[in-house]
Design a protein that fits this description.
The protein is mainly beta. Helices cover 11% and strands 31% of the residues. The chain is built from two helices and eight strands; from the N terminus they run H-E-E-E-E-E-E-H-E-E. The strands form four sheets. A two-stranded antiparallel ribbon has the order 1-8.
Length: 130
């Protein structure tokens, strides 16, 4: 039996679809994630502490500073530890670069939604939101 469920019943019922994956992320006050979008539904549950999200509607994409980046993958090697390998068969992706705070201050059309979760809070984030 898995430590984590493979499905969250109420979420699957509400979205009328089973999840592609159930992930568990752990971090502290120093963890950050670069501005990105996912092509699937996300449900974030804050178990302890707090988590800040800076969200952008999908239509914000043309307003963001982006750069074409190669795809890399982290791999575990028993002799070397964690290493990176370039996924040469994958097409480069457009990634948001630069300071999101500065970008939003310099563009009145770029609206950032700040969300703060505390222990017990849940956030649903639709596909393609940043």
């Amino acid at each position: 039996e898995s430590l984590f469920p493979t499905e969250i019943d109420w979420a699957s019922a509400a979205l009328n679809v089973s999840p592609d994956a159930v992930n568990f992320w752990v971090g502290d006050e120093f963890n950050t994630t670069s501005c990105h979008k996912d092509n699937y539904h996300n449900i974030f549950c804050c178990i302890s502490g707090s988590k800040r999200f800076r969200l952008l509607h999908p239509t914000a994409m043309p307003l963001l500073e982006t750069k074409e980046c190669q795809v890399w993958r982290w791999l575990w090697d028993k002799n070397l530890g964690w290493t990176q390998r370039r996924e040469s068969e994958k097409e480069p992706v457009r990634w948001v670069v630069g300071n999101l705070q500065r970008q939003s201050e310099n563009n009145k059309h770029l609206r950032v939604v700040d969300v703060h979760l505390s222990a017990g809070d849940i956030l649903y984030l639709p596909p393609l939101w940043y």
